[in-house]
């Protein structure tokens, strides 16, 4: 029986276990949206994850939506990320970069020349973003013109190449949580009347073009996609036929044989089943003809849930978010069924080392309770110290 702690080979990536560190925005990039040395420490501490998906990383200045989030569109940013990739690899970890364009979830103060954010629509989202003034309402966007869309695809492709030049093992395209690609996908947001709006086939077009361009650049085995079919975050209203929409999207992407799909089940950070949706149907569509692709599940998984979903074959890997923030050694804690440290919500966004790189790890004696292959020694009676 496959377990949560077994290694896995998916696409062109080999991971030591099936535990994924989910992308987590922490707003600690330095000047010029360059990854900081503190970020290097943060990721290095969590390198025991089978796979790290980095915090969302904007593909261009126009793609930025929050203060102090890192980019991957210039040389200094590439060099900063390279330090992180090297540190994680030295510890034996694997990592992919999440590529991000926020679309309308932005503010003019974060945009080049204080211009309007861009989107599929000119309608403002009922949402907030994090700026130099704290949390503010997002700005009114402008709808991208048809002639601009090839440039968006090119930004994604170039960012993916930059990630590989920084030494990453692959990329995850952010197609979830009400950001740009989902602004094109959902008919609750997309009000276009051109070939990127209206029908489902038109609305999936931009995502398919982005994924096709990146897969051609990196190879399908290093390319993944994150989706959130029913989450309402960032004013992403429900699509009129979410099941049909995402079924079609996976059908269109099937020829690419992507390395993985990272699926958010339910409302991001909230209810796992706010509305009916058949994730098993999506899983089966993805796995058909793509036995080497990984299905990564996410949202509120406990240790027991994660163990069960891997054992019954409903997923290949499980992503943990907040648990990784406050437990850099989460993999060992899950193996041992040890208590988890609580998250300090006051230090989630911005700041320094406090609530970022200073969370406790298990007593060294506990780590010694593991066999070389990661199994718990049967004769060990562990004690945990906060």
What key attributes describe this structure?
single chain, 386 residues, alpha/beta, TIM Barrel, eight-stranded parallel beta barrel, two-stranded antiparallel ribbon, disordered C terminus
Briefly summarize what is shown:
By secondary structure, the chain is an alpha/beta fold. It contains 12 helices and 15 strands. The chain has one domain (8-320): Aldolase class I (TIM Barrel), CATH 3.20.20.70.
Written account of the structure:
The chain has one domain: Aldolase class I (TIM Barrel, Alpha-Beta Barrel). Helix 1 runs parallel beside helix 2, helix 3 runs parallel beside helix 6 and helix 7 runs parallel beside helix 8. With 386 residues, the protein is of the alpha/beta class. Helices cover 29% and strands 15% of the residues. The strands form four sheets. The protein has an eight-stranded parallel β-barrel with strand order 3-4-6-11-12-13-14-15, surrounded by five helices. The chain has twelve helices and 15 strands.
Number of helices: 12
Rg (CA only): 20 Å
Q: Which regions are unreliable across 5 or more consecutive residues at pLDDT < 50? A: 379-386
Mind describing the biggest β-sheet?
8 strands, parallel, barrel
Strand sequence of the main sheet, in spatial order? 3-4-6-11-12-13-14-15
Q: Which word captures the global form? A: globular
Would you give the CATH topology? TIM Barrel
Cα end-to-end separation: 33 Å
CATH H-tier superfamily: Aldolase class I
How many domain modules?
1
Mean pLDDT: 94
């Amino acid at each position: 029986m496959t377990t949560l702690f077994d290694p896995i080979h998916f696409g062109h990536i080999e991971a030591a276990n099936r535990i994924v560190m989910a992308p987590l925005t922490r707003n600690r990039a330095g000047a010029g949206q360059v990854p900081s040395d503190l970020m290097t420490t943060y990721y290095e501490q969590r390198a025991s994850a089978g796979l790290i998906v980095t915090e969302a990383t904007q593909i261009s200045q126009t793609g930025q939506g929050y203060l102090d989030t890192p980019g991957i569109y210039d040389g200094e940013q590439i060099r900063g990320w390279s330090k992180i990739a090297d540190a994680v690899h030295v510890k034996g970890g694997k990592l992919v970069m999440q590529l991000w364009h926020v679309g309308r979830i932005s503010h003019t103060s974060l945009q080049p020349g204080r211009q309007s954010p861009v989107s599929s629509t000119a309608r403002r989202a009922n949402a907030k973003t994090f700026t130099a003034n704290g949390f503010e309402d997002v700005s009114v966007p402008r709808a991208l013109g048809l002639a601009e869309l090839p440039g968006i695809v090119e930004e994604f492709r170039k960012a993916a190449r930059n990630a590989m030049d920084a030494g990453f093992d692959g990329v995850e395209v952010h197609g979830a949580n009400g950001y740009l690609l989902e602004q094109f996908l959902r008919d609750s947001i997309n009000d276009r009347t051109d070939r990127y709006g209206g029908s489902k086939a038109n609305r999936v077009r931009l995502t398919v073009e982005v994924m096709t361009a990146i897969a051609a650049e990196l190879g399908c085995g290093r390319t993944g996609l994150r989706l959130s079919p029913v989450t309402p975050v960032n004013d992403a209203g429900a699509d009129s036929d979410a099941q049909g929409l995402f079924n079609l999207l996976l059908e269109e992407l099937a020829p690419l044989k992507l390395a993985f799909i990272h699926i958010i089940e339910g409302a991001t950070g909230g209810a796992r089943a706010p509305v009916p949706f058949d994730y098993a149907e999506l899983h089966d569509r993805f796995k058909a003809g793509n036995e080497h692709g990984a299905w990564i599940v996410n949202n509120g998984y406990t240790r027991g849930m994660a163990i069960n979903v891997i054992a019954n074959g409903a997923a290949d890997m499980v992503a943990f978010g907040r648990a990784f923030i406050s437990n850099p050694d989460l993999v060992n804690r899950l193996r041992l069924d040890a208590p988890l440290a609580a998250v300090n919500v006051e230090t989630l966004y911005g700041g320094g080392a406090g609530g970022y790189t200073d969370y406790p790890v298990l007593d060294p004696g506990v780590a010694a309770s593991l066999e070389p292959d990661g199994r718990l020694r049967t004769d060990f009676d562990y004690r945990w110290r906060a």
